[in-house]
Every structure is written in structure tokens, then in C-alpha cells.
Amino acid sequence: MRIILILTFLMTLNTTKANNRLFKGDKFCKDEDKKCIEYKNLIGSSFYLSIDDVDTPRKPIHSIYEKMYNEIYPAGILLTLRHSKRIEVIRNFVKNLSKKQDLPIFIGGDNCQVFYQNKNIRLAPVSNLNSCQSRLRASVAKIAGCNFLLGPRVEKGILTEDNSNYDEKRVADAKRDIKIYEKVGIFLTIKHFPFTPKRFDIHHHLIDFQSPLFKVSKNHFKVFKEFSGGNSPIMTTHVYNTKVDKDIVKFSKIWNRFIRKDLNFKDNLIVTDSINMFQAYPTNVLNKNFNNFDWQNKMSAPALIFIRSIIAGHNLVINRTASVYQKTLINDVIQTMKTKYFFSNEFEQNLINSQKLVKDFKMKFKKQLS
After folding, report:
1. Looking at CB atoms within 10 Å, which of 119, 134, 308, 343 has the fewest?
2. Could you report the per-residue pLDDT of 134-193, keeping only the tens digit for each?
3. Distance CA 149, CA 151 (A)
């Protein structure tokens, strides 16, 4: 036990030292480099900054995140809350950051719990809750400062992968929860489109489903169509099906077109699942069907995943990794935009389109989000 404590202390010390080095005169752009600043702001408008170090004894939330926030002004912040459940710490941090932008910042959470009135309360909705339990969670999430939570998992309502039937009660509960949360100013992200496999762990195995489009449409689109016409963002997964597209969903324009046209999510925000989940996939998946782009000598894998996700049609990219890796991602993407590769113009235009969509959403619901 003593050895474990010593190792934990040394790991924390090394992480803190690395974090402290990041922003000592180390900005993404020089003040006079206007183009770099323009790129940085564009990237920030589609970036979810993940907070993974909170409630240390002397600093409730490490200053590195505040510095990164002030550098890129991200579209949102994802509170993973691995180290804290103290609701006042979260609320104060959110309040402080919210003062710095004219438009509200998305404050999200996934599998988050806070300590409130002597109870651990999960903020996002799950199945099998009654309306009173959902109202309690929504109220506590609002007190914590959240306005953009990840969930419910509506694809869980699909009974089997080869059947078009779905659990109608689960879908009805999800619709109810969306209304309950929106009433207090919190938007729920429905996930995961088109589905999460039941037969294997998608984070550790790359298996080609080879299911024809008519079958996918019949079996998996139906449950998501139940939520079209609303305001909820929609999250994709990284399922692989070469009968529909040779790319996984995260990199696929075809799957994103289905969301916009077939499911009628015309102006809804499309969100990626966390791109760090992609680390279990073979390296060649990253540049496959992308001109076999030699990315290894030019950028980090997360940077390429960010770029390809935006080109595919996503508006918000989540990256649940430590601050040092998030900083590397942003820096690599900036440098890539400066270099001008074959995909640069399309990537930049998609960022501009996403920036407008995110801004329009925040303007439309400014009162609720604030």
C-alpha cells in the first residue's frame, strides 16, 4: 500500500511539472500572427476542452485548464470529475469561465456524479428512472452549472441488431427526460448513432458488420427518427460497416448525411464520441481512404482524428485526455492549417460552417444555456 501511494505521488508530481511548463510563455500563436489566431479561434469553436484534474488540495482546478481556455475559448468544457464530486467547486469554476465569453459556453458531463445533500447524484439521465428522479438530477445538474449533458443512450432501446423493433418505454422515458432537462436549461445529447454493437466491445475490436444499407436503415434509423425535429444534439460512434461506407462512422460523410437528411436532424449539432477511444484501432484506419496521407511525421493521431471528424461533418469534437495531449492536438491542427495539405480548404470551410451552427444554437438558446 505504501509503495502504491509513493508511485501515485510521483506520477502526480510529474504531471504537475509537465502542466506547469505548458504555458510559460508558450502560446499557440504569436500576437502578430493574425492567421494563426484566426485558425486557433476556428478550432476552438468546435473543440470540447476536457477537464481531468479537479479538486486537488491547494488548487481546486489546475490553472492549466484556465490558461488553455483563455487561449482557445472552446465551444464547451467536459467535466469528467475523476477527482471531485464537490458541487461548489464545479459551480465556482464554471461561473468564473462563463464571465469571459459573450455567448454561453457548453458545460457538459458524462457519467458524472456530484455530492449533494449527503448523496452521490449522477447528473445525466439513465434508463428506468421515474419522472421525480429525473427532475432531481436535472435540478442538481443545473445547480452545478451544467447545460449540455451526454445522454441518454437511445440506441440501447434497439432490442437486437437484426430487428427493427425497439423498447418503446425506454424511448418514451428518453423523450420525457429531454423535456425535463430542457425546462431547466440543459440540453441532452442523444447517442450513439447508428448503434453500439452488443456482440463485442467497440473500443477494443474493429469488426466489419457488412450489413447492407436497407437493413441498417430499417433496424437502426427508426429509433433515432423518434427524436428528429427536436433541439437535441446527436452523438456518433465509430462503428465499421463497409457495405455502407469504407470509413468508420466518425470519418464518414455518408453516415453524417443520413443524420441530416434521412433522420431530419437538419440544424442539430453533431458531436463525436471521445476521440481517445479510437486508440484501440489499427494505425492504418486513420489514413485509409484519405489518400494514404503520411500523417505520422506531420501531426499526432488525435489531431488527424479531429481533422477527419470535422471533414466528415461533425460540429463538436470531444477529446477526453490529459491537458498536455489536448494542447498537442490544438497545436498540430494549427500547424496543419498553415501548411495547406490537400484537405485543408475543405477542413477550414467545415470549421467555418460548424462555427456558425454552434453560434446560432447558442444565440437561439442563450437564455436557457446561461
Report:
1. 119
2. 999 999 889 888 899 998 888 766 655 555 677 888 889 999 999 999 999 999 999 989
3. 6
- CA 180 to CA 149: how far, in whole Å? 13
Angle at 241 between CA 238 and CA 244, to 5 degrees: 115
Task: Report whether 141 contacts 149 (CB < 8 A).
Answer: yes
**DSSP-based three-state secondary structure for 142:** helix
Cell numbers that stand for 187 in this block = 440540453
Q: Which amino acid is at 267?
A: D
Q: How far does Cα 290 stand from its chain's mean position?
A: 23
In whole angstroms, give the CA distance from residue 120 to residue 82.
13
Q: Give the Cα separation of 192 and 202 in Å (integer).
A: 12
The DSSP call for residue 173 is: H
Rounded CA gap, 91 and 82, in Å? 16
Which grid cell is 52? 481531468
Of residues 3 and 264, more confidence is placed in: 264
Q: Is the pLDDT confidence value at 13 over 50?
A: no
Distance separating alpha carbons of residues 291 and 25, to the nearest angstrom: 37
Q: Cell match 481546486: residue?
A: 60
CA-CA distance, 200 to 214, in Å (whole number)? 23
Answer whether 188's CB lies under 8 Å from 142's CB. no
* DSSP 8-state secondary structure symbol assigned to residue 325: H
pLDDT of residue 179: 96
Higher-confidence residue of 72 and 79: namely: 72
User: Are residues 327 and 319 in contact, defined by beta-carbon separation less than 8 angstroms?
Assistant: no
Residue 100 vs residues 30, 93, 198, 283, 325: alpha-carbon distances, Å:
21, 12, 43, 39, 24
How far is residue 143's CA from residue 135's CA, in Å, rounded to a whole number? 12
DSSP letters for 53-116: -B--SS-SB-HHHHHHHHHH--SEEEE--SS--BHHHHHHHHHHHHTT-SSPPEEEESS-EEEE
